[in-house]
């Protein structure tokens, strides 16, 4: 049974996450986990198609993810975090990226 801990992840707003959220004991670990996911997503924003429209969408997505990373970097330790990013036109609604306290008993907390 897990004590109160931190969860982090992302999902299209209003939908269940495609990947399981991370569950960790500390806010610092949750922040690091979400930062890694944001960096990985941002780094995937490269288009080799030469399609100007696609390139513009990827540029907007890259900038949006970088902005979320900057916001997360400025977040005060122990504070919940929520940012919405442009998804490059994949969905009609933004992607939510979050860190929050989790008090569910059924979670498996990494490192415990």
Main pleated sheet: 4 strands, antiparallel
| Computed structural class | alpha+beta
Q: Helical region count?
A: 2
Order of helices and strands: EEHHEE
Shape: globular
Overall structural domain count = 1
Strand order of the largest sheet: 2-1-4-3
- Quote the beta fraction: 15-25%
Instruction: Tell me roughly what share of residues is in helical segments.
Output: 25-40%
CA-to-CA gap between the ends? Answer: 11 Å
In words, what does this structure look like?
With about 110 residues, this protein is of the alpha+beta class. It has one domain. Helix content is about 35%, strand content about 20%. The protein is built from 2 helices and 4 strands. A 4-stranded antiparallel sheet has the order 2-1-4-3.
What's this, in brief?
The termini are close together.
Give the tags.
single chain; globular; 4-stranded antiparallel beta sheet; 112 residues; 4 strands
What is the topological layout?
Elements: E1 5-12, E2 22-24, H1 27-43, H2 52-74, E3 81-85, E4 95-102
Antiparallel strand pairs: 1-2, 1-4, 3-4
Helix pairs in contact: 1-2
């Amino acid at each position: 049974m897990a004590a109160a801990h931190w969860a982090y992840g992302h999902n299209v707003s209003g939908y269940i996450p495609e990947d399981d959220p991370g569950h960790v004991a500390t806010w610092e670990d949750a922040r690091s986990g979400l930062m890694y996911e944001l960096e990985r997503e941002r780094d995937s924003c490269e288009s080799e198609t030469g399609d100007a429209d696609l390139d513009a969408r990827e540029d907007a997505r890259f900038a949006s993810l970088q902005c979320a990373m900057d916001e997360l970097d400025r977040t005060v330790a122990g504070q919940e975090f929520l940012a919405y990013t442009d998804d490059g036109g994949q969905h009609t609604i933004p992607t939510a990226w979050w860190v929050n306290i989790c008090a569910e008993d059924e979670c498996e907390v990494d490192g415990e």
